[in-house]
Design goal:
There is one protein chain. By secondary structure, the protein is mainly α. It has one domain. It contains 14 helices and 2 strands. Helix 1 runs antiparallel to helix 13, helix 3 crosses helix 9 and helix 9 packs across helix 14. The protein is globular and about 70 Å long. The two termini are 28 Å apart. The C terminus is likely disordered. GO terms for molecular function: oxidoreductase activity, acting on paired donors, with oxidation of a pair of donors resulting in the reduction of molecular oxygen to two molecules of water. InterPro entries: FA_desaturase_dom, Fatty_acid_desaturase. This is Acyl-CoA desaturase.
């Protein structure tokens, strides 16, 4: 029996009370947001800039292996921080209250091949609205992987252990094309002309990123063209692997659940909160882990409060956990090694045919709702 099986269904009254407690926690925390949070995100911006500048400068000394290694690591660190703690969180509108045009959720453009506009649609809207709802949340397997037994098995999934590795290495590219919904083209539900039109902004962003990392900076290095190109390639690979691991650990551990579309019918605020909880997984660790994951080590809190400054998740996590305990709900957390091991198990297990298990219901039968 997994710990998810310990989840008990909540009555309608309990769901309302559950939602009210989480709403109250959000209100108390957001009332504290201010200058301290602004200083924090500006320090992150500065760290991203300085580590990128230092990394690129060291890569120009490509003939010296220690300089190349350190430069690549610093550039990779910069790209991870920009992607996770800066771009992802800013685009959720967590810092819109600052009125800083460089930190506004609707205009920020991040340093990957995918466009921010597409991410705001596929992630901020679809994923966070329909978290783990089958047929609505495209992040369930990203159209490539079968990670839950409720997904219909096809022979294609036999290859998913290999596909998962390739996807991890090229993760930013998968994010870039997600909204294009290539499956619709293959099934005839989207024309090639429509695909070409949708691809134009994506193609422009891809070209810009490729020219920057693999043409402009290598050319500026002169005789060290190849070491700089390779350093950029490795730094991008570092970010791809890290973000893939963090995101998969947050959504696809053994206790994470998916839901049928029927859960959306007359879904209350408390019901929505409960779905976010049941579909999320946290990572235990120290402050450095939280910063490097963009505080998605608190994936539960992020799904509950996506527009709250992410540095506040560690503050609210103990109260969220206590609320879960009061209502008989599993608070899914563990070390990164443990959680990622469960992800690997899902990838391997569900590459083969498997039958859906019996998930704990979210809402108690009407007869029990007193």
């Amino acid at each position: 029996m997994t710990s998810a099986a310990l989840n008990r269904p909540l009555s309608v009254a309990e769901l309302d009370a559950f939602g009210a407690e989480l709403d109250a926690l959000r209100a108390r925390t957001m009332a504290q947001v201010g200058a301290e949070d602004a200083r924090y995100i500006r320090r992150i911006v500065a760290t991203v800039r300085y580590t990128e500048a230092a990394g690129r400068a060291l890569l120009f000394f490509g003939a010296l292996p220690p300089a190349w290694v350190l430069g690549t690591l610093l550039l990779g660190l910069s790209k991870i921080l920009e992607n996770m703690e800066l771009g992802h969180n800013v685009m959720h509108g967590q810092y819109d209250w600052m009125r800083d045009p460089h930190l506004h959720g609707k205009t920020y453009e991040w340093d990957i091949v995918g466009t921010s506009d597409n991410w705001r649609y596929t992630h901020n809207y679809k994923h966070h609205t329909y978290t783990n709802v089958r047929g609505m949340d495209d992040d369930i397997g990203y159209g490539l992987l079968r990670l839950f037994p409720e997904q219909r098995w096809r022979p294609f999934y036999l290859f998913q252990p290999l596909i998962a590795v390739i996807f991890a290495l090229l993760f930013q590219w998968g994010v870039a094309i997600q909204r294009l919904e290539l499956g619709k083209v293959f099934s005839g539900r989207k024309t090639k002309a429509e695909l070409r039109e949708e691809f134009r902004p994506v193609g422009r962003k891809m070209r810009r990123q490729l020219l920057k990392d693999y043409v402009l900076f290598p050319l500026l290095a002169g005789p060290f063209f190849l070491p700089v190109l390779l350093g950029n390639l490795v730094a991008n690979g570092m970010r791809n692997l890290w973000t893939y691991a963090v995101i998969f650990c947050g959504h696809f551990t053994a206790d994470a659940e998916t839901f049928p579309k029927s859960v959306l019918q007359n879904e209350s605020r408390g019901h929505w909160y409960l779905r976010q909880l049941r579909g999320s997984s946290n990572l235990s660790g120290g402050r450095l882990l939280h910063i490097m994951t963009g505080n998605l080590s608190h994936q539960i809190e992020h799904h509950l409060y996506p527009d709250m400054p992410a540095r506040r998740y560690a503050q609210v996590a103990p109260e969220v956990r206590a609320i879960c305990a009061r209502y008989g709900q599993n608070y899914n957390t563990g070390s990164m090694w443990s959680q990622f091991g469960q992800v690997i198990w899902r990838i391997l297990r569900h590459a083969l045919p498997s039958r859906p298990g019996k998930a704990a219901p979210l809402v108690a039968p009407v007869a029990e709702a007193v």
